[in-house]
Amino acid sequence: MEHTSLLERILRGIALTLVVIFFMFPIVWIFMMSFQTNETILRIPPQLVFEPTLANYTALITGKLMTAAGTLDIAFMRNLWNSVFLSVTSVAVALLLGVPAAYAFARHKFRGSEDIAFTLLSFRFAPALLVLLPLTLYFQKLGLANTYFGLIWVYQLICLPLILWIVRGYFEDIPADIEYAYRIGGHSWFATFRKIALPLAGPGIAAAGLLAFIFAWNNFVFALVLASADKQPVTVGALAFITSSGIQYGQISAAIVLSITPTLALALYAQRYLVEGLSLGAVKG
Amino acid sequence: MSASAITISGVDKFYGPIDRGVHAVKNLTMEIAKGEIVALLGSSGCGKTSTLRMIAGFEEVSRGAISVGGRKVHTLAPVKRNVAMAFEGYSLYPPLTVRENMAFALKAARLPKSEVDAKVASIAKLLEIEDILERYPSSISGGQQQRASLGRALIRNADLHLLDEPMGQLEPQLRAVLRGRIKHFIKERGLTAILVTHDQTEANALADRIAVMEGGVLQQFDTPDMIKRRPANLFTGTFVGEPPMNVFEAYVGNAAGKISLKLPDGLSLDYDKDAFSAPVRDQLLNRERVVIGVRPYAVRRSKEGVPATVSANQWLGDQTHIAADFAGGSLVLVEHDRTRLELGAPINVSIDPKNLHVFDQASGNAISHGMELA
């Protein structure tokens, strides 16, 4: 790094710029589209200069979509809330169940423990569409279709194995003797789990939680089939923008911007915490 | 010796199902008195650490019982056993400083802060870690972590202190100093300690009694001196002592008032019958084959001894280790002067029957040590 010529630095700058442009372009383009009307978006050739409008955001927030065919009610804010509620609750439930389970799998080798852990992982192998049909039938019988409870339950298929397997690895990396040292000092195993194992695996739990949150947030098929309009998350709700008078690109873009904002914010926040936690947690001697 | 601090009776440890898994500790029975320091000595995988962990409660006892201070503890959770332990891997809590790590061990005792501070300060002084008390485990060396971990165990007022390889990472000079201090510390407070080690110097220096283990079996449990002088079997004989005991298989011959121990390569150690005490002589004459052992420092060079050829000669600064090809094997002798012997030089060696250890050829159990029966 110390002895780089000017040419090298320029070339590296260009290469980095290209990479950033390549990856950022869709996001930036969507961001720009969200401030335009359908007419300006669909201009040929597309133009970088336009007069920004907040109409798309206003439409989303007020829930009134003006189309050529008239005013349309959309439940975008409701969808956004559903997304937040479903993802947060699912991850919370998965953490509550998955972290102690991961600890058990990491620390105790009991009969069939590997089989159970693998079975839980195998939930991720099944293609969602294959599971959906029987699941829908069952859920309708049980009255779980179109309930938050049912959806959160199904979301465990996504979140629980992920958290279980990632966190288990983190627990296994903590030398068992640290916990023994704490227990022999006069503390119960539960206190040990809470005071030693959990903080040491903290960064791992945060990473797993974040990943599970993103997966849950991005889920489409489960919610599409199992939820009706008032329980749908944004991923499904976005379908409403394909209207009889055309696809509302402006509103879709604004909806995308609004819906990636929470995950993006969470990721940025957690990233800082993750780095901090990982550099602090030098467990090995 | 006062009341027993810990009693281990008929303890077995299986990893995996009982009677089918790996049998790590076999029918171990030991009694350790209050105020005693005992070393579990053995090579890797001999079951010493398993034993320690069973006492601490981190491993289940497959069979048998362990009592601490008259209380059966082997089914209790570690928290209820009132034992302190220093771990081989240190196992300090990473988010706490060295001071907090040590003070933490006293938390359950609920002492006033001033008392905790005083205790930490005195232990830190003892272990020479005063200057790193405010540092975090990740920023100090292995040796310092080990001392911090040792301090965390010694600071507690437990019924029993378990020390797993407590000084493995320390520099030799420091190790020698700390050994003395730790022994004094333990003795002064009348603590009972069990330490696990594979370093016999450490065991000899620290322990009142040494339990030599091999293959999960307790080979001998005695004072360091007795283990040196009267090894119970071939294993203890060759395991304890530096350099190790020389051993040879021998046929016992009896002709013309002499007992001859016939070694391979046609060599023979001949002794007058009267050179042995009567019981030892009877034992020898009752057998056809035995294994004889002799400590390197008991082998003498003499004019009329048995021939051997020098294969190595090392001056260690205070003693000479001479290795010689002898009776189809190798014989090591120690001399206190600097000896100038070229490689391949012929020497003659003799062994005083007073220094001869005789072992049973089949079982390896000791038959006699010098003039006494085992």
Structure characterization notes:
The complex is a heterodimer of chains A (285) and B (374). Chain A is mainly α and 285 residues long. Chain A folds into 2 domains: 6-73, no CATH class; 76-280, Orthogonal Bundle (MetI-like fold). Chain A contains 12 helices and 4 strands. The two termini of chain A are 31 Å apart. Chain B is 24% helix and 36% strand. Chain B has helices at residues 48-56, 98-104, 113-127, 142-154, 172-189, 200-206, 224-229, 234-239, 278-285; strands at 4-15, 22-33, 37-41, 63-68, 71-72, 83-86, 160-164, 193-197, 209-214, 217-222, 246-255, 258-262, 268-272, 289-294, 299-315, 320-326, 329-335, 346-351, 357-360, 366-369, 372-373. Chain B has a 7-stranded antiparallel sheet. Chain B has a 6-stranded mixed sheet with strand order 6-7-8-3-9-10, sandwiched between helices. In chain B, strands 2-1-4-5 form a 4-stranded antiparallel sheet, covered by helices on one side. The model of chain B has no long low-confidence stretch (mean pLDDT 90). At the A-B interface, helix 8 and helix 9 of A face strand 6 and helix 4 of B.
Sheet-strand content of chain A, in percent, reads: under 5%
CATH topology of the largest domain in chain B: Rossmann fold
> What is the second-level CATH architecture of the largest domain in chain A?
Orthogonal Bundle
The helical percent of chain B reads 10-25%
**Poorly predicted parts of chain A:** 279-285
Structural class of chain B: alpha+beta
Distance, first to last CA of chain B = 24 Å
- How many separate domains of chain A? 2
For the residues shown, what is the average pLDDT of chain A? 84
The helix-strand sequence of chain A is HHHEEHHHHHHHHEEH
